[in-house]
Amino acid sequence: MMKIAIKMLMGDRAKYLTLVSSIAFVSLLFIQQGGIFCGLIGRTARPVEAVDAPIWICDPLMRSVDDAEPMQDTDLYRVRSVPGVKWAVPLIIRIVTARLANGQYQSVRLYGLDDATLYGRPAHMLSGDTRDLLENDAVIIGQAESDKLGSPKIGDSFEINDTQARVVGIAEAPRDFLSNPFVFTTYSRALSYLPPDRKTLLYILAAPKDGVPTQTVIANIEKTTGLAAYTEDGYRWHTMGYYLKNTGIPVSIGVSLAMVFVIGTGIAGQTFYAFALQNERFFGALKAMGVSGTTLTHMILLQSLLVGLIGFGIGGGLASIFGFAAGPQSKIAFAAPWELAAIALCAVLIICLLASLASIRRVLKLEPAVVFHG
Amino acid sequence: MAELAASLRDVHKNYGEATTLVRALDGVHLEVVCGELLLLVGPSGCGKTTLLSVLCGILDATSGDVEVFGQRMDRMTQEQKTAFRRENIGFIFQQYNLLPSLTAAENVAVPLLIHAVPWEDALTQARAVLAQVGLADRTEFLPTKLSGGQQQRVAIARAMVTRPRLIVCDEPTAALDGHTGQRILQVFREQVLSPERAIVIVTHDSRIFGFGDRIADMRDGRILGVHTQIATGASQDAVELQALHPQATHGNEGSA
Q1: Size of interface A-B (CB pairs under 8 A)
Q2: Cα pseudo-dihedral B202, B207, B208, B210, rounded to 10
Q3: How many other C-beta atoms lie within 10 A of the C-beta of residue B254?
Q4: Each residue of A226-259: pLDDT tens digit?
Q5: Cβ atoms within 10 Å, residue B106
Q6: pLDDT digits (tens, 9 = 90+) for A173-219
Q7: In chain B, N or C: fewer CB atoms in 10 Å?
Q8: Does A286 touch chain B (CB under 8 A)?
Q9: Alpha carbon of B16 to those of A125, B23, B45, B60, B78: distances in Å?
């Protein structure tokens, strides 16, 4: 009988295509909107990922990577003295304002890297060399969003806090949530770009000694210094959590996803119900011929499941095309982890289940005597 | 004496209540025996279809005894009735009710599939029964590609395929022209009727009155009389009944 159910479903081409396309549309919107949500939230943690350090240490009041809660300069030495710490270097990450050659102002994300090691320097240079950062006034810019700086080339310059910044290299850098260009320089030069402040040390990057678990070192640092310490992944989630709690992004995207869910359920439900209505006399005939209510329920659920899976496949495919078209370096924030696809599939299956409930109820309550009504 | 296929004793079926009460069946007594083709005739709204529905357990009688092959339908649960219909009753509907997305063979195979017969076996049996009703060359046609008479023959094949002992038909010729209607009734007599099987046909098409072994005349929810015909064909009874039912149709003169 399940084969009959499939043939009944696919035989009514118009309704079948309406059902599949509505579920495909729901899947597309769900994954696309969910992907933008994941992409946007993921971008809040890009400044952390760009550094690639085992342990991040900061003031306990620091709420995100974009916050500025400086520590004492002496905290660097305290961290270096903690048992299990192999090395520790300072890092500055601040949003500052650059003045371009044409007089315009542009916010940039400034990285001040340890002068001795340049730890946290870009991993992949597109032009120039990271060692050139040791030259006077030298900065390396990230290519992403560099158009906001006038797409400078090596040798071009701009100003930060009335101090010259000369481009000595262009590196691959991620796009962050605020879409600011990345500017890398040495720690000491970064201090000259910042307004004078009593405390300037924002982050300390550290690594555990060989054989010492990272979590043990983190616990030692927190216990000994009273500072906050995270693994890189921990600090990523700390930052993303801040944006999740303190911005309207989850609510905005959540509302649109809820609307997709409700509208999708409505469209699919109406179409399923219309399908049941149109096939009422056939379902009635099947009941009269001895098909049990359980079998009819299974038939409708199978039809619903089939529509859900095919629609999800098409919608997911279209969303993947959207994701590929956007690309990792695109201005469009889009990320579709497998968890998002799994959630979207669950949502689609719930929509299909809800949509089929009205049909199932209708068919179960249907008097088989309807078949004798000419 | 032939086995009793079905009996209805003082069967009532009411719709609505108080001022809206309609007595669709008002004390019906009727017996159907195996090997006979019983025509249930009467004007529109006299309760023929309700009687048919009660007889095969798809409507519950308000009161009275309904017995089919010795089983009291009025004492069965819905699930038991469903299973009973599956095993014992074949249906032929006025509008055929063939699933439009299934071929003729697949439509005929449906009752077998309900009995959990494997798909290919069901199709093989269905094709054989379609051949019996003269549709061997139409087994893979969709219903929309068949004429009205052919669709009705598919419906007959579907009702026969599980060899049920009782076949009920609702206005099987209402949508057919006179000639096709008569050919369908010939199929009933020659291919469907057998000594161990009874056929009950609801109709108000006077042109087929001559094909019944007995004709139950129904009016206002009651059986006025049951007329036995000596031989099939246009009997005197049929002629008399035709006179009794001047509003009886002469079928659809258009080609179906």
Answers
A1: 85
A2: 120
A3: 9
A4: 999 999 999 999 999 999 998 888 888 888 888 8
A5: 22
A6: 888 888 899 999 999 999 999 888 888 899 999 999 999 999 999 99
A7: N
A8: yes
A9: 85, 9, 16, 14, 21
pLDDT in tens, A327-370: 766 777 778 788 888 988 898 888 888 888 888 888 888 777 77
Distance CA A355, CA A258 (A): 16
**DSSP secondary structure of A156-190:** -EEEETTEEEEEEEEE-----TT-PPEEEEEHHHH
Contacts of residues B193-196 at CB distance under 8 Å and 24 or more positions apart, as own/partner, are B193/B35, B193/B36, B193/B37, B194/B35, B195/B2, B195/B34, B195/B35, B196/B3, B196/B34, B196/B35, B196/B165
Give B230→chain A minimum CA distance, Å: 30
Which chain B residue's Cα is nearest to A294? Answer: B79
Domain ranges of chain B: 4-244
> Distance between CA atoms of A130 and A293, rounded to whole angstroms?
73
Q: What part of B 54-113 touches A (C-beta under 8 Å)?
A: 56, 58-59, 79, 82-83, 85-87, 91, 93-95, 97, 99-102, 106, 110-111, 113
CA distance A117 to A236: 23
pLDDT value at position A238? Answer: 92
- pLDDT beneath 70, residues of chain B: 1, 230-256
CATH 2.60.40.1120 fits B4-244, yes or no: no
Handedness of CA A305, A307, A312, A317 (dihedral sign): positive
User: Nearest chain B Cα to A6, which residue?
Assistant: B101
Question: Would an 8 Å CB–CB cutoff place A11 in contact with chain B?
Answer: yes
Q: Do A8 and B82 touch (CB under 8 A)?
A: no
> Which residues in A228-374 belong to E strands, given as ranges?
228-231
Record the tokens describing residue B47, joined without a space.
């309760």
The whole-angstrom separation of Cα B157 and Cα A8 is 20
Nearest to B85 among A3, A289, A293 (CB): A289
Instruction: Compute the average pLDDT of residues A158-167.
Output: 91
Nearest residue in chain A measured CA to CA from B97 = A282
Smallest Cβ–Cβ distance between B59 and the set A282, A289, A369 belongs to A369
From first CA to last CA, the distance across chain A in angstroms is 26
Q: How far apart are CA B36 and CA B229, in angstroms?
A: 11
Confidence at residue A217, expressed as pLDDT on a 0 to 100 scale: 95
Closest CA to B170 of B245, B252, B92: B92
CA of A369: which chain B residue's CA is closest?
B58
Is the Cβ of A357 closer than 8 Å to some Cβ of chain B? no
Q: Does residue B254 sit at the A interface (CB-CB below 8 Å)?
A: no
Of B53, B97, B99, the CB nearest to A369: B53
**Average pLDDT score, chain A:** 88
A31: closest CA among A328, A312, A371?
A312
> B47: closest CA among B27, B64, B33, B67?
B27
Predicted-complex ipTM score: 0.76
Strand partners, A105: A99
Minimal CA–CA distance to B188: which of B217, B159, B216? B159
Q: Do A369 and B100 touch (CB under 8 A)?
A: no
Residue-level pLDDT at B230: 57
CB contact at 8 A, A209 and A85: yes
- Distance between start and end Cα atoms, chain B: 40
| Pairing status of strand B214-219 against strand B37-41 | parallel
